[in-house]
Amino acid sequence: MTVKQFNPKQTTTMDGPKQIIQEQSIQVKQLDSAPETTKIGFVSLGCPKNLVDSERILTQLRIEGYDVVSTYKDAALVIVNTCGFIDSAVQESLDTIGEALAENGKVIVTGCLGIKEDEIREVHPNVLSITGPHAYEEVVNQVHEHLPKPEFNPFLNLVPDHGVKLTPKHFAYLKISEGCNHRCTFCIIPSMRGDLVSRPVGQVLSEAKRLKAAGVNELLVISQDTSAYGVDVKYKTDFWDGMPVKTHMQQLCEKLGEMDMWIRLHYVYPYPHVDDLIPLMAEGKILPYLDIPFQHANKRILRLMKRPGSADRTIERIRKWREVCPELIIRSTFIVGFPGETEEEFEELLTFLEEAQLDRVGCFKYSPVDGAKANDLPDPIDEDIKDIRLQRFMEVQSQISKQRLQDRIGKEYNIVIDSVDAEGAVGRTFGDAPEIDGVVHLNGVFDVQPGQRLWAEIIHADEHDLWAVPVEDEEADIQDA
Ligand code: SF4
């Protein structure tokens, strides 16, 4: 439980894909002897949505028999999947392309920054090709152009049903749609990824089932706007397992909830129909965890951001959600120092934090993003004032987060193990999403594997993490993943 400043860097380095593919035993051994011309390096930058795009490209390349290697020198070419969300992400993407060019020389660029081809070519004129986000086929075609497709060999081309995953075996991202119909003035994602396109619900559920069969026991549902799922196809009815299912968030969650996995919802826009998901959480069908970016509390600022809601209504909704589902954990993100934000409006945000008592909060200072509408708004806030507001925001929220973690001491939770290190096992409760939230330390517990679950009592908490000991009763038996 923590206050985080926005950090766009969730980078999978050159080493990552190779290592994870090896851990998943996707026939790497034989492929080590593959000809040089089938070896590809891959760097994935940015958010989980980009990671899923990387997984799709890698899955297709592995199906075709290409190998993934972990060093620039071993690769015949390198693919860089870029992020272009904010200026620091753009810079990181450009630096990574530069590094790949210097170390390898043959570089294919794809991902969000790809829509700004001129900007990339200005700095790196020698990249082989550039495409925008979710251009899976184009990327694979470009690889064909520069590295001839390996001869098909059924013994080498073994890829599991669930494809290539870049996450540990026990959890996976499930991307349900692409693009976004909103036009938040601080955001350029719709211009990079286009309007909302929902995946057919049958396809999404089949993927979930395949992931479950592959050992996944936690699904992180992602998209740009998870609660808008199906709006673009007018909630069309599809079929799955011989039964009609609507392309709608509610029905998707109900079906996922029957699969006996942890189902965690990310990037939920605060639409009124989110209220209908809370009973599913109370019934234990999906995790009582909501990642819902409120961005601000003041009505005028929200209007300038083109976001819905106002503090009063949101507080009322949170109160009702907690009435229905008292264990609900809420994660949110906010922007401070948005153009024109007055001291009073900022204080309204602080009051909102006190009243909302959110569990986990990310906060970042507004910074102009090339191409965002908010750049044209009057009265930009001085950097000094933004810094002070961010600090004040963090002081208020870290006390709240700390207290909410303290409140968990003495309670028992089902913990999923993520890793075991020299001090013992490290895991998470339902209230902790991987990579972004805190962890639970089980010091001295070594006889567990990643993906296993056990019951434990929380005995200590700091501002971010929890410490727990396994519970010595019947329920404490370690469960298989
Ligand atoms: S909801 Fe707003 S912030 Fe989120 S992707 Fe869409 S436009 Fe961007």
TrEMBL record:
List of residues binding [4Fe-4S] cluster 2: 180, 184, 187
Cofactor: [4Fe-4S] cluster
Chain residues that bind [4Fe-4S] cluster 1: 47, 83, 112
GO cellular component: cytosol
Keywords: 4Fe-4S, Cytoplasm, Iron, Iron-sulfur, Metal-binding, S-adenosyl-L-methionine, Transferase
E.C. code: 2.8.4.4
PROSITE patterns for this protein: MTTASE_N (PS51449), MTTASE_RADICAL (PS01278), RADICAL_SAM (PS51918), TRAM (PS50926)
Positions of the Radical SAM core domain: 166-403
UniProt GO MF annotations: 4 iron, 4 sulfur cluster binding; aspartic acid methylthiotransferase activity; metal ion binding; protein methylthiotransferase activity
GO biological process: tRNA modification
Annotated catalysed reactions: L-aspartate(89)-[ribosomal protein uS12]-hydrogen + (sulfur carrier)-SH + AH2 + 2 S-adenosyl-L-methionine = 3-methylsulfanyl-L-aspartate(89)-[ribosomal protein uS12]-hydrogen + (sulfur carrier)-H + 5'-deoxyadenosine + L-methionine + A + S-adenosyl-L-homocysteine + 2 H(+)
Free-text cofactor note: Binds 2 [4Fe-4S] clusters. One cluster is coordinated with 3 cysteines and an exchangeable S-adenosyl-L-methionine.
Domain MTTase N-terminal stretches: 38-148
Keyword presence, Metal-binding: yes
Residue ranges of domain TRAM in the record: 406-472
Record's subcellular location: Cytoplasm
Family statement drawn from the similarity comment of this UniProt entry: Belongs to the methylthiotransferase family. RimO subfamily.
Described purpose of this protein according to its UniProt entry: Catalyzes the methylthiolation of an aspartic acid residue of ribosomal protein uS12.
NCBIfam families per record: 30S ribosomal protein S12 methylthiotransferase RimO, MiaB/RimO family radical SAM methylthiotransferase
Name listed for the protein in its UniProt record: Ribosomal protein uS12 methylthiotransferase RimO
Classification of source organism: Bacteria, Pseudomonadati, Pseudomonadota, Gammaproteobacteria, Alteromonadales
